[in-house]
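Sample pair:
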Amino acid sequence: MEANHAFTARCILRAAPAATLATQQQGQPFASLVTHALAPDGAVLLFLSMLSQHTRHLVAEPRCSLLATGTPAGPNPQTAPRVTITGLAERVADPALKARWLARHPYAAQYAEFGDFTLWRIAPVNALLVAGFAAAHRLRQADYTPDPEAVATLAAAEQGVLDHMNQDHADALAAIAGGGLPWRMVGLDVDGCDLAAGEATHRLAFTAPAADIAAVRQELVEATRRARKK
């Protein structure tokens, strides 16, 4: 089966707890640590303070880049899978996207209503996936973006799935995430789902992009089976 490089790239981005944002001011590059999340369509979400230098850079020049990395296979950090996104940043006022970002970073609730913070969305233009040594794959926007119909289908069903899993299958979530915490499902997308317990989070990546609820159900059943088998 041919590898789905776009799916792999999105999974790395969705799982990474933080990333490096590259902005510029009058041609001078500037890199900074940011905490990100991904929208259902794969766009990058940032919750930024206007007091930060990189935010002021984006106001003046929205072209930017973001690098997220996975876990290296050994002592050589260059064995880590990684994804670089280039795109255009814009401020958005979307409560649903803000809630998705907060679900990925629940500790940020204490400053979520501060007046200097704004939600930003980076619309990807291109992506580069480095899946390991000598395994680089360039992705155009059309390649990187998940199937719009699947995105819409899962967005419409998301709350129902969350309610069902949290009310009827808390034991399955506990098995998947481990750690003996009261895990709840707080987000669902075509690539996987997000679990949270207090300020702790856990990302479950599916084995392939889910096109419908039947595929989501199968992924959750198999993930629970694997977790319990361990």
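Helices lie at 5-15, 53-60, 95-104, 141-144, 148-168, 170-177, 213-229.
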